[in-house]
Fold this protein.
Amino acid sequence: MSTMNISLPESLKSFVDEQVIQHGYGTSSEYVRELIRKDADAKHLRSLLLQGAASTAAAPVDVSYFSALRERVQKHARG
């Protein structure tokens, strides 16, 4: 694992220390890694949403679409 040092003003360091204690992180590094993972996940989700918004609809989303979807789910649930 690589090491990265960051400088924080005392107010942010105190905030990080509080978050570590309140949320049960073992170290401030664990807290920062979690923030970075959440940010990466949010960016990935945004990318997927934008791709979906830019794509063309494969079928109209109407009553028959949801009926067919419901039937597939019920069939899958029955085994």
